[in-house]
Amino acid sequence: MVKLKFIVREGALVLRISEGKQRFYKSVKHLLVGNPNIEKHWSTDKEKFSTYAVSYQENNKALMDFKAIYLKLTTEHPEFTARQIASAYTHNTGKVTCQVADRLQELDHAATFFEPYLEVIIQREKAKQGCNFEVYEKLLTKCRKLIPQFNILRFSDIDYDKCVYIASIFAQHTGYKGTAKCFRAVLGRAAKDKAVDFSLTRIGDFKFNDYNPAKNDELLHQPDVLSPEQIRTFLNLDVFNLTPNYADRNLIELYYDFCVFMFQSFFAPCDVIKLKYQHITKANTIVTRRKKTHKAIEIPITPKMQEIIDKYRGTTSNGYVFPIMDDEKAKQHVTKDYLFKKFRQNLNVWLKDVGAELGLAFNLYAYVFRHTAITVALDNGLPTSYVAMAAGTSIEVIQQHYYNGNSIANRNKLQMAFIKAGI
């Protein structure tokens, strides 16, 4: 609740407008005539000058009229904050009353439309010491330039679909994240402002920071996967004659085994590299957490995976399954995960050459084997929930990127279904 009281502040008489811990002050020096002695003749309790003060009747009436203007505003607009009440009027001698209607109209305008409300936020930020109002000024400039009919955008127009539309416009230009974050901050302020009829429930679960401008083009941006014929070819390669320009054949064999292990485990490169014997259970499964998502996973160990595990047993350090990581060597490098990153880099260079030998339409890289494993599992009828658990990702990601619509077999089945429908 906004409270009004005349007080003496730093030797001058002011009207204090307060709400909770907020305090705003309006000077009344321009109202007083005769230069009354405030220290001697002002009564704090009664909020008026005593009969001993110069022109006490005239000054007391001027103060009452001044306070009445703000009192009327607090009564008619209880939803206004102390800051809004304090900024409602422009005081020029003899023109206070005629400014009221115009200023109230401005406040109502700001409570209805996004643009003037953003201007109010900028003014509020400028009034705070050390605050960064520039980000809001940049947002205002961008919105005026990019959003069609921004000047008539009402808070009542803003819902989930409107946010998607605005985010899609921001995403076409540089600095999307900063712009989107600032726009969302304005919505948050409006939702907390009693003067604005807006609630964040109107935008539902839309999140500007998670907005993907290519969300509706997912079918055009499917992950790279190997076809059934290509994966069979890779799994039956003659490793010793593969990429003959590489002299270190033991390293090539490690690269190859590493990729086969990824394919049969759903693992990403970092998960295979960090895999340790302690993650292998007596039930012949691997129980660990994805490095990227930290989700717990459990996968069965296939005969081929077991063969690879046994091959490198005794050749590794610090309990790792693959002879890639060495904790002591890792400490010698300033870069975090240097050994892992260097191995992955060299692996992808080699895979690019392998992809060229296989005649792939895309550059082969390590993550393709994880993508392919997930697709193969789905195409063979494994439940999406199980594949998501085994792959350490969400069902939503599986449905968006790996669902069975990518399957050639399913596309053929769909064609046959339409053909049979016409028989």
Chart the SSEs and their pairings.
Blueprint (H helix, E strand, L loop, with lengths): L2 E7 L2 E8 L2 E6 L10 H4 E2 L4 E2 L6 H21 L5 H5 L9 H17 L1 H14 L6 H13 L13 H11 L5 H17 L35 H8 L13 H17 L3 H5 L11 E5 L6 E5 L2 H10 L14 H4 L7 H21 L8 H13 L4 H8 L3 H7 L6 H14 L2
Antiparallel strand pairs: 1-2, 2-3, 4-5, 6-7
Helix pairs in contact: 4-5, 5-6, 6-8, 10-15, 16-17
Shape: elongated
Beta-strand content estimate? 5-15%
How many β strands by DSSP? Answer: 7
Measured on Cα atoms, how large is the radius of gyration?
35 Å
Mean pLDDT: 84
Number of domains: 3
Q: How helix-rich are the residues, as a percent range?
A: 40-55%
Q: Going across the biggest sheet, name each strand in turn.
A: 1-2-3
Query: Per CATH, what is the topology of the largest domain?
Result: hpI Integrase, Chain A
- Distance between the first and last residues' Cα: 76 Å
For the largest beta-sheet, the strand count, sense and barrel status come to: 3 strands, antiparallel
Structural class: mainly alpha
CATH homologous superfamily placement of the largest domain: Intergrase catalytic core
Low-confidence stretches: 92-104, 216-220
The second-level CATH architecture of the largest domain is: Orthogonal Bundle
Please provide the ordered H/E string of secondary-structure elements.
Answer: EEEHEEHHHHHHHHHHEEHHHHHHH
